[in-house]
């Protein structure tokens, strides 16, 4: 199974984190040397799933150019089930179905990652409508177990 997060390509707006960063004068590289923000290739190379692969060209783990063409290319490259996490509108849900995605994970960081401010539960009915019963729409969030919504786990 391949799960791609599509809702935070440019990072999130975390106001509390930004306030705290200004007060923290520690050197981040002391703990994060070769980390995802300082050296993406070194960060990826430490992951067991990339062992033996040349990852020297990796410059970021969050591509800023993700598009529906990217999703289409992924679908064409693998037979693994492909799920997208972060779809929150009926229009994007319908496009995901058109691209051959196998399921959606409805989760938007409590509305902090995009401009709607809607919680996962508030986005869920619209996404379910958008998939039209053709693929599962799986709600996820703090304190929101998947078992609460068994009819949504299986289309049709």
Provide tags for this entry:
156 residues; alpha/beta; 4 strands; 10% strand
Description:
The protein has 156 residues and is of the alpha/beta class. Helices cover 35% and strands 10% of the residues. It has helices at residues 15-23, 29-32, 40-45, 68-77, 90-98, 120-131, 150-153, and strands at residues 2-5, 82-85, 103-106, 137-139. The protein has a four-stranded parallel sheet. The protein starts with a strand and ends with a helix.
Radius of gyration: 18 Å
Q: Profile the largest sheet.
A: 4 strands, parallel
What pattern of helices and strands is seen along the backbone? EHHHHEHEHEH
Portion in helices: 25-40%
Distance between the termini: 21 Å
Q: Judging from the principal axes of the Cα atoms, what is the shape?
A: flat
**How many extended strands?**
4
CATH class of the domain at 2-10 and 64-153: Alpha Beta
CATH architecture of the domain at 2-10 and 64-153: Alpha-Beta Barrel
- If helices are DSSP runs of H or I spanning 4 or more residues, what is the number of helices? 7
**Share of β-strand residues:** 5-15%
CATH superfamily of the domain at 2-10 and 64-153: Aldolase class I
Structural class: alpha/beta
Uncertain stretches of 5 or more adjacent residues: 144-156
Mean pLDDT: 76
How do the strands of the widest beta sheet line up side by side?
A: 1-2-3-4
What is the CATH topology descriptor of the domain at 2-10 and 64-153? TIM Barrel
In terms of topology, how is this protein built?
Layout (H helix, E strand, L loop, with lengths): L1 E4 L9 H9 L5 H4 L7 H6 L22 H10 L4 E4 L4 H9 L4 E4 L13 H12 L5 E3 L10 H4 L3
Parallel strand pairs: 1-2, 2-3, 3-4
Helix pairs in contact: 5-6
């Amino acid at each position: 199974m391949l799960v791609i997060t599509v809702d935070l390509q440019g990072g999130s707006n975390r106001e509390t984190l930004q306030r705290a960063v200004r007060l923290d004068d520690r050197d981040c590289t002391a703990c994060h040397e070769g980390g995802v923000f300082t050296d993406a290739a070194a960060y990826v190379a430490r992951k067991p799933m990339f062992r033996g692969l040349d990852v020297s060209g990796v410059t970021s783990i969050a591509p800023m150019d993700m598009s529906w063409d990217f999703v289409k290319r992924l679908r064409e490259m693998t037979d693994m089930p492909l799920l997208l996490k972060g779809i929150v509108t009926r229009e994007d849900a319908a496009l995901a179905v058109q691209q051959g995605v196998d399921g959606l994970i409805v989760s938007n960081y409590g509305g902090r990652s995009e401009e709607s401010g809607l919680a996962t539960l508030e986005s869920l009915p619209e996404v379910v409508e958008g998939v039209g019963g053709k693929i599962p729409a799986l709600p996820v969030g703090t304190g929101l177990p998947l078992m609460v919504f068994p009819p949504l786990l299986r289309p049709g």
